[in-house]
Amino acid sequence: MLPAQDPDGAPRPHPDPAPGRGLSGFTKRSESVYDPFGAAHSSTSISAALGMAVARDLDNATAKVKGRPQKRRNAIAVIGDGSMSAGMAYEALNNAGALHSRLIVILNDNDMSIAPPVGAMSAYLARLASGGAYQSLRETAKQLGKLLPKALYQRAAAAEEYARSLVVGGGTMFEEMGFHYVGPVDGHNLDHLLPVLKNVRDAEHGPILLHVVTQKGKGYAPAEASADRYHGVVKFDVISGVQAKAKPNAPAYTRVFGESLIKAADADDKVVAITAAMPGGTGIDLFGKAHPDKTFDVGIAEQHAVTFAGGLATEGYRPFVAIYSTFLQRAYDQVVHDVALQNLPVRFCLDRAGLVGADGATHAGAFDLAYLCCLPKHDRDGGLRRGRAGAHGGHRPRA
User: Fold this and answer.
1) Cα Rg for the chain, rounded, in angstroms?
2) Are residues 209 and 267 part of one domain?
3) Where are the stretches annotated Disordered (predicted)?
4) DSSP letters spanning 197-242
5) Residues 138, 216, 229, 270: which is the catalytic one?
6) Which domain CATH number covers 270?
7) Quick check: 236 and 242 in contact, CB under 8 A?
């Protein structure tokens, strides 16, 4: 939803970026009417869009009672397949399916991790499944089915589930959560995509999940060849793709940490490393090359990463959890409940601590000292020397 007005009805301005600062790297409500919700940390879009959809429904219910015109506004969440590894996304899907609010979720799958689109038949099925006639017929069948005796209804439901699985394939999971699944659709073929988007936009019932398959960096050869290097970029040459990064005089913290952790693991076979979808940004990629069997990238799942480390620690291992400071905030209950209160020797290695200007306020590690120093029996290490010592001794959490 793209609100053009503030709650009081006044038009929301579109401010020019401050001189020398430019635009934010992520959506920011104060910056544009086209930024309906601030974002930077992963997997929040479905929850936010569901809140907007329910707010719309409540407003329309009030308008109906008072005889006022109702608004037809679409709440649309866009989420990548990588972000679907976070539990928050499934919490939102589960709640949306239960509320039956008219919500549209567009799943941008650029790793084809769920299902690839297969030619014209895939496009035809997507148009069919997203069309109003199909959805109305299906909704009517559901209502009629409820009038059947229980035994017949259960058999009909089982038959419908089997038939649905033949059409939606990899979308069965979303259908079971209460969504109407459409796709997969080739996101680079506009002749296939646009009709489906129009059908989804005009749908009377919800929620709907549209599965769009894309290629990261498509159309720009350097990005296609090395998509991970174009997640965030500095000034670069458009022809060659070479980024103009200044060479530092000192080695990067991530390299120093990664090499130090390798030495610790060489000396102690109980040392393991865990990261949450940020191996390159934390130095764990270096450790992974040296000790692949002791490296665990759990995806965008910080909560799981911390408790997983706690489980390893109970069995005598010495887990090092390397996460950006700003992302560990998402797993604070696990740090407290699953590690600190049990006094488990988990080592938290917080990258990007302090004020890191490039990515803005959402990525600043400004709160780690406050939220870790208050924990009981929690050692705060200020350097790698103490961190290396911690790999071989100590029986309490460290950060």
Assistant:
1) 25
2) no
3) 1-29
4) HHHHHH-SS--EEEEEE--TTTT-HHHHH-GGGGSS--SB-TTT--
5) 216
6) 3.40.50.970
7) yes
- Candidates 330, 347, 352, 398; catalytic one: 330
Q: Is 323 within the bounds of a domain?
A: yes
21 catalytic? Reply is no
Instruction: Indicate whether 73 belongs to any domain.
Output: yes
Same domain membership, residue 111 and residue 178: yes
Residue-wise pLDDT tens digits, 244-288: 776 766 678 889 999 999 999 999 999 999 999 888 888 999 999
Grade residue 231 by pLDDT with cuts at 50, 70 and 90.
Answer: low
Within a domain: 308: yes
Residue that finishes a domain, picked among 165, 183, 213: 213
**Helices in the chain by DSSP H: which ranges?**
45-65, 87-99, 119-130, 132-145, 150-168, 172-176, 190-202, 221-225, 253-267, 279-282, 284-290, 302-314, 325-328, 332-334, 368-373, 384-392
Report residue 50 as tokens. Answer: 């569901």
Q: Is there a domain that residue 247 lies in?
A: no
Q: From the CB of residue 152, how many other CB atoms can be counted at a distance below 10 Å?
A: 11
CB 232 within 8 A of CB 359: yes
CB contact at 8 A, 179 and 109: no
* Interval 76-86 mean pLDDT: 85
Supply the DSSP symbol for 42: T
Q: Which domain holds residue 161?
A: 44-135+144-213
Tokens coding 82: 């990588």
**Torsion angles phi and psi, residue 269, rounded to 5:** -75, 0
Out of 56, 175, 294, 302, the active site residue is 302
Distance CA 300, CA 38 (A): 19
Number of domains, the chain? 2
330 in catalytic set: yes
User: Annotated catalytic, 176?
Assistant: no
pLDDT score of 291: 96
Query: What's the CA gap between 269 and 317, in Å, rounded?
Result: 8
pLDDT for residue 309 is more than 80: yes
